[in-house]
Design brief:
Biased composition (Low complexity): 681-690
Number of helices: 11
Keywords: Glycosidase, Hydrolase
CATH architecture of the largest domain: Distorted Sandwich
Low-confidence stretches: 3-7
InterPro entries: B-gal_small/dom_5 (IPR004199), Bact_Beta-galactosidase (IPR050347), Beta-gal/glucu_dom_sf (IPR036156), Gal_mutarotase_sf_dom (IPR011013), Galactose-bd-like_sf (IPR008979), GH (IPR017853), GH-type_carb-bd (IPR014718), Glyco_hydro_2 (IPR006101)
Domain Beta galactosidase small chain/: 696-955
Largest sheet: 12 strands, antiparallel
Strand content: 35-45%
Mean pLDDT: 96
Shape: globular
Bound molecules: beta-D-galactopyranose
Catalytic activity: Hydrolysis of terminal non-reducing beta-D-galactose residues in beta-D-galactosides
CATH class of the largest domain: Mainly Beta
C-alpha cells in the first residue's frame, strides 16, 4: 500500500476487521418500557464518487446541508433520486462487480453522506445511557454524533450498536453517517441479488436506564415424554422473569419445569412473559420446543419434521430490501395460506421483526448468516476469506451478531453459516462458536459436503434420482454424513414458467424418512419497478457485468401476486392427502407433523360437466398426524347419461385463524366418476368445389388450391395448421453451466421456430377434404408428415390431424398441436383445467371445472416474457363466436400476439396486442423442468416425436 495523500482516512473501508467502537452484540427486542426514538424518515443526503472525496466537516454541528438532496431512511439511495441521480442498482449472481483483490475495493466507491438532526422528546429521561442502533447498512458505515466519531462497522444485514449517552443533547443533535457502497465487507456479501447501498433498516436511539436489560438468553425446552417445558432465562443484568400464563415468577438463571403447550410451526403457542431488571421491563414471548437430530432424523419435540419451505430474500419492487412491517406480514400470511411451513432466510438474517412474525404465525426458520463469497469460485477459491485467518474475526463477528440477535425466537431451529462460501477454517470456527454458544439448535451449511461442521446434510438442486439414492442411504459420503437427515436447502428453481417436477420431489420426501423436505428457490422475483420496462432486471441499468433475469426466480411476482408456481407448490405440499378410497369412499390422511385435523372441515361437491350439482359435508375423526381414515361419500344425485361427473373433496378451515379466514381451502382433490364422452360428428356434408377457387364443406369454406380453411360460419380464420414452437421458458433455456441438453438452444439450432410447411396435395373424397403436408425446418432432414382431414355435418366441422415423424428425431418437441388466429375475441369460456396455467409437470393445481376469462386474463405475466398460459385437460372452449371441442381433451392457449412476438420480447412492455387473437390447440406439451438451475424435464414429461392423431370439432357458439 502507498500512503494516501488526502486528509480523510478511509483505511477502515478496506480493513478486514468488523469495525470499531461498537458494543458487543445482544438479544434484539422490539420494545420495552425504556424510551426509544426511531430516527427513520427524511435525511439530508450527499453522494460522492469516491470514499475520500469529501472530508468530515459535514459531521460537525452547524454544518449547513441546506443544499443537499434528501433520501428516505430506511432505503437504498440507488432506488431513490430522479432518473438515476443517485446511481443505479447492479445485479450479478456471483461475479464480484469489481476486480477481485481482497480486501481492496475500487477507487470508484459511491459514498453517501447522511445527516439527520433531532431533538430528544420532552419525556426523555435525564439519567441513564443511550444506545444508537443500526439494524442494517450496506456495506460499511462511519458514524458521528454531534461531531464526535463513534465508530465504523461492516456486516450489512446485522445490527450494530454504539453507546452514545455522553454525546446526546436535549435538542439539536446531529447524527452523521457516511456509507460506502464497497468495502472489505463486500467480499463477504456476494449473494445472488442486487447490490444496493444505503441505510436500509431502522435507525433507533434507545434509552438505557441504569441497570437496564443487557443481553439475555431465553432457554425454553419441551419434553414430549412428560409434556413439560423447562424455562431458564440467563441475563447479563440479573432480574426476575414472570410468565403469568404458567404461574411462573423466577429469578434469572433459575430453572422451572411445568406442564406447557409446546411451540411448533403448526401450533405456535407463545406464552407472554416479562423480563424485569431493576432498570427495564422487557416483554417476551416464550415458545417451548426442543430441536435434535435423533436416529438420523431431525426432530422437534420428539417428532420428525417435513420442511415445506421457501427461500426468502427480502424484496420490494420499489424499496428493495427496505421492508416495512406490513410487507413482512404479507409474506408470512402468503406463506401460511400456501401451505408453506418453513423459511430459509437466504442469505442473511432478515429484519428481526420478520422473525417475530414467524414465532407468532408459525413457520420453521433456518436463520442464515450474512456470508457468501461465491465469486471466488472463479479463481478456484484462491484467497477465499473463509480460509484466511485474517478474516476469521469478521466471520465470528457476523456469526455472533446473528446468534445473539435472534437466539430468543422459537421459530429459529437452525443456524446457517452462510451460503456458497466454499470451505475453510473460518467456517469451522463459526460452527464451533455457534455450537458452544447455543446447544439448543442445529448448524446448517450446504457447502460442507463432509458435514464436519454441520448437523444436517444439506444439498441444493440435486436431481430426483440422486435425491432418491440419498433417501435410500446409498449415497455414500463420510461416516458422519451417512447418519444425518437430508434437507434440500434449495430446489425447484422458480425462474419464469415453472418449476416443474415439484410433485415428483414431494413423493420422494414422503416415501423416504431421511428426506426431510426442502426449500424452493425462491420466494419472490427481485424485479425493480421501472417506468419504461414494467420491471427491470439485470442489465437494464447498463451494468458492465450482469446476470439478466436470473434475479427474477420467485414464486411471487415482484408485486407479490402468487405465480402459478406458488399455486402448484401449495397443492403439492398440502398437509392433508385426500384420495379415492374403495367403493364410493374417500381416504383422508393427516400429513401434518404435529396438528390433528380438528381445525379443518371437509366438504364435497358433486359436479356434472363442470357444474356443481350438489354439495355437502363429510364428518371425519380428528385424525392424529400420520393417521388415515376412510369415509363414505353420499349416493350421487342422478345425472343424465353421457355427462362427465366427479367429486371434488376439500379440506377447509373450520374457523377463522390468524392467517386465513374460515373456509380457506387447505387441500382438495377430484375423484372422477363418469368420463367425458368424446364429441361425435357424423360426416354428412360433401366437400363441394365452387367456381371461386373455393371448396365448401358444411359451415366452412377452403382455398381449393392450398386446402387452407378460410371461413367458418362466416368468421374469417387464419390456420389452423401444425405448430410445434413455444417461446422458450427460462427452464427451457437452462443455466449456462448446465452440462446436458438445454432445449431452448437445441430447438433453435434445429430450427423448430422456423418450420416450413410443404403442401403435398389436396384430396377430395365423398365425405372429406384431406390436405397432405410435410412440416420441417430448413437444413434438417427430420420432418413431420402431417395430414389434415376435414369433415362436416350441416353445422359443425371436424379436423383430424395425423402426424408421423420422419427421420431421426433426437430432440423432444416443445408442443404438438395446431395454431389459428381469430379476428375478435371478447371472453373465453372453457370446460377443463383451471383457473391458471398448467404444463405436464406443473399441473397438480389445475382443477377441472367451467372457467371464464378475458384473453388478457389468460396471460401469466412472467417478468421476462416466455411461454405461458396453457390450460390443461380442456374438453371444450368457446371464444370468438366459436365452440371447439377436442378428442381427446387438449391444451388451450390464447394471446393477442404471436409466439414469435412473445419469443422476441424482453419485457412485458414489449408485447403489443395485434388485431387478431392467436390460439393454440395442443395435443401435447413438453414439460417444464427446473433446468434454469437444476434438473431438466423428467423423461416421463418429455414430448417425444411419435405418431399422433387428434381432432377438434368446430361449431358456431350456440
Ligand atoms: C444457488 C444460490 C442462490 C441462487 C440460486 C440460483 O446456487 O445459493 O443464491 O443464486 O442458486 O438462483
Amino acid at each position: 500500500m502507498y500512503p494516501r495523500t488526502t486528509a480523510t482516512t478511509t483505511d477502515y473501508v478496506e480493513d478486514v476487521s468488523p469495525g470499531t467502537g461498537t458494543l458487543p452484540p445482544r438479544a434484539w427486542y422490539r420494545a420495552s418500557d425504556a424510551k426509544s426514538l426511531l430516527l427513520n424518515g427524511d435525511w439530508r443526503f450527499r453522494l460522492s464518487p469516491t470514499a475520500d472525496a469529501e472530508d468530515d466537516a459535514f459531521a460537525a454541528p452547524g454544518y449547513d446541508a441546506g443544499g443537499w438532496a434528501e433520501v428516505t431512511v430506511p432505503g437504498h439511495w440507488v432506488l431513490q433520486g430522479d432518473d438515476g441521480a443517485f446511481g443505479s442498482p447492479v445485479y450479478t449472481n456471483h461475479l464480484y462487480p469489481f476486480p477481485v483483490d481482497p480486501p481492496h475495493v475500487p477507487t470508484e466507491n459511491p459514498t453517501g453522506d447522511h445527516l439527520r438532526h433531532f431533538d430528544l422528546p420532552a419525556d426523555w429521561p435525564a439519567d441513564g445511557d443511550a444506545v444508537l442502533r443500526f439494524d442494517g447498512v450496506e456495506s460499511c458505515a462511519r458514524v458521528w454524533l454531534n461531531g464526535t466519531e463513534v465508530g465504523t462497522f461492516k456486516g450489512s444485514r446485522l445490527p450494530h450498536e454504539f453507546a452514545v449517552g455522553a454525546l446526546l443533547r436535549p435538542t439539536g443533535n446531529v447524527l452523521a453517517v457516511r456509507v460506502h457502497q464497497w468495502s472489505a465487507g463486500s467480499y463477504l456479501e456476494d449473494q445472488d441479488q442486487w447490490w444496493l447501498p444505503g441505510i436500509f433498516r431502522d435507525v433507533t436511539l434507545l434509552h438505557r436506564p441504569e441497570r437496564a436489560a443487557g443481553d439475555f438468553f431465553v432457554h425454553a425446552a419441551y419434553d414430549h415424554r412428560t409434556g413439560e417445558g423447562t424455562l431458564r432465562v440467563d441475563s447479563e443484568v440479573p432480574g426476575r422473569v414472570t410468565v403469568p400464563g404458567l404461574g411462573l415468577d423466577l429469578a434469572t438463571g433459575e430453572t422451572a419445569t411445568v406442564p406447557v403447550e409446546p411451540w411448533t410451526a403448526e401450533t405456535p403457542t407463545l406464552y407472554d412473559a416479562v423480563l424485569a431488571t431493576p432498570g427495564e421491563r422487557v416483554p417476551l414471548r416464550v415458545g417451548f420446543r426442543t430441536v435434535a437430530v435423533e436416529d438420523g432424523l431431525l426432530k422437534v419435540n420428539g417428532r420428525p419434521l417435513l420442511f415445506r419451505g421457501v427461500n426468502r430474500h427480502e424484496w420490494h419492487p420499489e424499496r428493495g430490501r427496505a421492508l416495512d412491517l406490513e410487507t413482512m406480514r404479507q409474506d408470512v400470511l402468503l406463506m401460511k395460506r400456501h401451505n408453506v411451513n418453513a423459511v430459509r432466510t437466504s442469505h442473511y438474517p432478515p429484519h428481526p421483526a420478520f422473525l417475530d412474525l414467524c414465532d407468532e404465525y408459525g413457520l420453521w426458520v433456518i436463520d442464515e448468516c450474512d456470508l457468501e463469497t461465491h465469486g471466488f469460485v472463479e479463481h478456484d477459491w484462491r484467497d477465499n476469506p473463509v480460509d484466511d485467518d485474517r478474516w476469521t474475526p469478521a466471520l465470528l463477528d457476523r456469526a455472533a451478531r446473528m446468534v445473539e440477535r435472534d437466539k430468543n425466537h422459537p421459530s429459529v431451529v437452525m443456524w446457517s453459516l452462510g451460503n456458497e462460501a466454499g470451505t475453510g477454517r473460518g467456517l469451522t470456527a463459526m460452527a464451533e462458536w455457534i455450537h458452544a454458544r447455543d446447544t439448543s439448535r442445529l448448524v446448517h451449511y450446504e457447502g460442507d459436503a463432509t458435514c464436519r461442521d454441520t448437523d444436517v446434510y444439506s444439498r441444493m438442486y440435486p436431481f430426483h434420482e440422486e435425491t432418491e439414492l440419498i433417501g435410500r442411504g446409498l449415497d455414500g459420503g463420510t461416516h458422519k454424513r451417512r447418519g444425518l437427515p437430508l434437507i434440500l436447502c434449495e430446489y425447484g428453481h422458480a425462474m419464469g414458467n415453472g418449476p416443474g417436477g415439484l410433485a415428483d420431489y414431494q413423493r420422494l420426501f414422503e416415501r423416504y424418512d431421511r428426506l426431510q423436505g426442502g426449500f424452493v428457490w425462491e420466494w419472490i422475483d427481485h424485479g425493480v419497478r421501472h417506468p419504461g420496462l414494467g420491471y427491470a432486471y439485470g442489465g437494464d441499468f447498463g451494468e458492465e457485468l450482469h446476470d439478466g433475469n436470473f434475479v427474477c426466480d420467485g414464486l411471487l411476482f415482484p408485486d407479490r401476486t402468487p405465480s402459478p408456481g406458488l399455486l402448484e407448490y401449495r397443492k403439492v405440499i398440502e398437509p392433508v392427502r385426500i384420495e379415492g378410497g374403495g367403493d364410493g369412499s374417500v381416504r383422508v390422511t393427516n400429513g401434518h407433523d404435529f396438528a390433528d385435523l380438528s381445525a379443518l372441515a371437509f366438504t364435497w361437491s358433486y359436479e356434472v360437466d363442470g357444474e356443481t350439482a350438489a354439495t355437502g359435508t363429510l364428518a371425519l375423526p380428528p385424525l392424529a398426524p400420520g393417521e388415515s381414515a376412510e369415509v363414505k361419500l353420499p349416493e350421487p344425485p342422478d345425472a343424465p347419461a353421457g355427462r362427465e361427473t366427479l367429486w371434488t373433496v376439500r379440506a377447509v378451515l373450520a374457523e377463522d385463524t390468524p392467517w386465513a379466514p374460515k373456509d380457506h381451502v387447505v387441500a382438495w382433490t377430484q375423484l372422477p366418476r363418469t368420463p367425458h364422452p368424446a364429441p361425435t360428428l357424423t360426416p354428412t356434408a360433401r366437400p363441394a368445389p365452387a367456381a371461386d377457387d373455393r371448396i365448401h364443406l358444411g359451415p366452412a369454406t377452403f382455398d381449393a388450391r392450398t386446402g387452407a380453411l378460410l371461413t367458418l360460419s362466416g368468421t374469417e380464420l387464419t390456420g389452423p395448421r401444425l405448430d410445434v414452437w413455444r417461446a422458450p421458458t427460462d427452464n427451457d433455456e437452462g443455466a449456462p453451466w448446465q452440462p446436458d441438453a438445454r432445449y431452448g438452444t437445441l430447438w433453435r439450432e434445429l430450427g423448430l421456430h422456423r418450420m416450413r410447411h410443404r403442401l403435398d396435395g389436396v384430396r377430395l373424397t365423398d365425405d372429406a377434404l384431406t390436405v397432405h403436408t410435410r412440416v420441417a425446418p430448413a437444413a434438417a432432414d427430420v420432418g413431420l408428415r402431417t395430414t389434415y382431414r376435414w369433415e362436416a355435418d350441416g353445422e359443425r366441422l371436424r379436423l383430424t390431424v395425423a402426424v408421423t415423424p420422419e427421420g431421426h428425431w433426437t430432440l423432444p418437441l416443445p408442443r404438438l398441436g395446431v395454431r389459428l388466429a381469430l379476428p375478435e375475441v371478447d371472453r373465453v369460456r372453457w370446460y377443463g383445467g383451471g383457473p391458471g396455467e398448467a404444463y405436464p409437470d406443473t399441473r397438480s393445481a389445475s382443477r377441472l371445472s367451467r372457467w371464464e376469462s378475458s384473453v388478457d386474463g389468460l396471460q401469466t405475466p412472467y417478468v421476462r416474457p416466455q411461454e405461458n398460459g396453457a390450460r390443461a385437460d380442456v374438453r371444450w372452449v368457446e371464444l370468438g363466436g366459436l365452440r371447439i371441442e377436442g378428442d381427446p381433451a387438449f391444451w388451450f392457449t390464447a394471446r393477442r400476439w404471436t409466439t414469435e412476438h412473445l419469443d422476441a420480447a424482453a419485457h412485458l412492455t414489449d408485447l403489443a396486442p395485434g388485431d387478431r387473437v392467436w390460439v393454440n390447440l395442443d395435443h401435447a406439451q413438453h414439460g417444464i423442468g427446473s433446468q434454469s438451475c437444476g434438473p431438466g424435464v423428467l423423461p416421463r414429461y418429455e414430448l417425444r416425436a411419435a405418431p399422433a392423431e387428434f381432432s377438434f370439432v368446430f361449431a358456431r357458439r350456440g
